[in-house]
Amino acid sequence: MRDDSTADRASGMSREEILALPAAIDLDTGNRALGLGRSKGYELAKRGQYPCRVLRLGHAYRVVTADLVELLGLAA
């Protein structure tokens, strides 16, 4: 039987980890915080359907951390 704290770390991020993120993060980190797989996250970003604001910088995607925090209901 798995410990719940181990399951949380494997599938997502803790509240403290999310609140410590910089102003914008890479898409893989955003996917991890939302519990999305890599392929699904990139597919949503490419279609403009990611659940929070994503910036396209050249070939890279960046997730706006403030929008992610608000989406997850962690805003103070």
How would you describe what is shown here?
By secondary structure, this protein is an alpha+beta fold. It contains five helices and three strands; from the N terminus they run ααβααββα. The chain has a three-stranded antiparallel β-sheet. Strand 2 and strand 3 form a beta hairpin. It is globular and about 30 Å long. It starts with a helix and ends in a 5-residue tail after the last helix.
Give keywords.
single chain; 76 residues; alpha+beta; 3-stranded antiparallel beta sheet; 5 helices; disordered N terminus
> Regarding quaternary structure, how should these chains be classified?
single chain
Strands, total number: 3
Largest sheet: spatial strand order: 1-3-2
| Beta-strand proportion | 15-25%
Give the class from helix and strand content and strand pairing. Answer: alpha+beta
Estimate percent helicity.
Answer: 40-55%
Count of discrete alpha- or pi-helical segments spanning 4 or more residues: 5
Q: Rg, please?
A: 13 Å
Sheet with the most strands, sense and barrel status: 3 strands, antiparallel
What do the pLDDT scores average to? 86
N- to C-terminal separation?
35 Å
Low-confidence stretches: 1-10
| H/E series | HHEHHEEH
Tell the overall outline.
globular
